[in-house]
Every structure is written in C-alpha cells, then in structure tokens.
Design brief:
This protein is of the alpha/beta class and 219 residues long. The protein has a single domain, classed as Rossmann fold. The protein has a six-stranded mixed beta sheet with strand order 6-7-8-3-9-10, with helices on both faces. A four-stranded antiparallel beta sheet has the order 2-1-4-5, covered by helices on one side. Strand 9 and strand 10 form a beta hairpin. The chain is globular, with a radius of gyration of 17 Å.
C-alpha cells in the first residue's frame, strides 16, 4: 500500500511546456516526507497530482493499489474524503462560514460534523484558535487563516496528509506547533505526511526528503 507514481509528466498551455518531466517515486504508508526545491521547479504541481486533485498528462498514480485516474469522479471524491487531508498554499476558506464551520467542512460533506466537532475544537485550541471559533475568515489574520486550513486538513484524521508550505505564513512558534503536531499524529496514528517546505529546519524533520530540480526528482 502507499503511493506509487510511475513516469509522471505534466504539461501546461499551448504550445505545451513540460513542467514535470518523468517522475517515479514511492511513498510508504505512515511515512513523513518533505519535498524541497527552488521556486517554480514543480513541487506544487507534483503534490496536486500525487493527491489526486489534478490528473497527470501521462503516467500513473496508484494509491493503496487504486489507479486514481481510472475511477469515476464520484468514486474519487469518496476515496479522497475517506483517506486524504489537504493543506494548500491558497487555503480557500469559505468566507460565509465561521472558523469552526470551516474546519468542519470535510466532516459536513461526509455528514459527520457532530461526531467530529469535539476533535475540531481540540485542534483549534492546540493551534491557539480557541477564542476564534466563531470568527469569520475576513476577521482573521493570514496566519490564523492558515491554521484554520490546517485544522480542516486534519479533522477527518486522514491516512495521507498533503501540505503545501503549511508553515509559509506562520511565525516560528506557530510553525513549530504545526510541524510538531503533524509529527505526533504521524507517529501515533500512522498518518503519512507529504509536505512542501522552503524551511531547512522543517525539511530536516522529515524521515526522507524528495529533492526536486526543474521538473525532476534528484535521487
Ligand atoms: N495551471 C498552470 N498553467 C500554466 N503553468 C503552470 C500552471 N501551474 C504551474 N505552472 C508552471 O509550472 C511551473 C511549476 O509550478 P509549481 O507551482 O509546481 O512550482 P513550485 O515548485 O511549487 O514553486 P513555489 O516554490 O514558488 O511554490 C511554474 O513555472 C509554473 O509557472
Ligand atoms: Mg508551490
């Protein structure tokens, strides 16, 4: 089980420019992996493809043995809801929902918000958001919004967490709190964490680092 990428290529535009140039890699269940490389080398593109949010131009993505680009979009939604958490660069909070409701969004989709509510609140307290449960995104700072998005990614206790620069807008205390919590859930629940970072210290927390350069993985 785990994630298996085979010869992943991705092009954008016409004429097409190749952004990922043939990436094969494997991520084991429960691994804690960082992805690093210069701006524009393809880290976010790779993370989107690995996490099923964007299809590759060619190549295959197997997750727990399932070819995720060969199943219907309905099945894919179910698969994601069941197994995956996402924390992305632009966190897309819903402006008309308060912070707690935003965190509970993935639970709402699965009709499990009551059951997940206490856990959602405990995550928010851990991230220093205990007094902001009822605040709307427009009333929160950038770093607070980011922590809301991180709590949302964790609320279903996913098997795989994909995070694109999760500490990008955070001061070092909050950045450390987030990375330590990821590590703890990784160890306690065997949640695999795959995260992109520009921070050398956070990158070193990983068991393994995937180094990218110009659309390829350096071994
Ligand atoms: N939807 C798109 N359309 C066209 N080009 C794109 C698209 N998405 C990404 N690219 C291009 O692909 C390249 C890689 O982008 P990507 O976002 O994966 O980089 P990155 O490594 O995550 O960079 P950063 O560290 O700045 O976030 C960039 O040159 C970018 O312009
Ligand atoms: Mg990026």
């Amino acid at each position: 089980m785990g994630i298996l990428l085979t010869d992943i290529r991705k092009s954008f535009g016409s004429p097409p420019t190749q952004v990922l140039k043939g990436i094969s890699l494997e991520i084991q269940e429960g691994e804690f992996v960082s992805i690093v490389g210069r701006s524009g080398c393809g880290k976010s593109t790779l993370l989107y493809i690995m996490s099923t949010l964007d299809p590759p131009s060619s190549g295959t993505v197997l997750i727990d043995g399932q070819d995720v680009n060969a199943i219907s979009s309905r099945e894919l939604h179910r698969f994601r809801n069941l197994k995956m958490g996402f924390v992305f660069q632009f966190h897309h909070l819903l402006p008309e929902l308060n912070a707690l409701e935003n965190v509970l969004m993935p639970a709402m989709k699965a009709n499990r918000q009551e059951e997940r509510k206490a856990f959602a609140i405990s995550l928010m307290e851990e991230f220093g958001l205990g007094k902001k449960l009822k605040s709307f995104p427009g009333q929160l700072s950038g770093g607070e919004q980011q922590r809301v998005a991180i709590a949302r990614g964790l609320v279903m206790e996913p098997r795989y967490l994909f995070a694109d620069e999760p500490t990008g807008n955070l001061d070092s205390a909050n950045g450390n709190a987030v990375m330590s919590l990821f590590r703890r859930i990784n160890q306690e629940q065997k949640m695999a964490v795959i995260y992109v970072t520009h921070d050398i210290d956070f990158s070193k927390m990983a068991e393994r680092t995937i180094q990218m350069s110009d659309g390829l993985v350096l071994s």
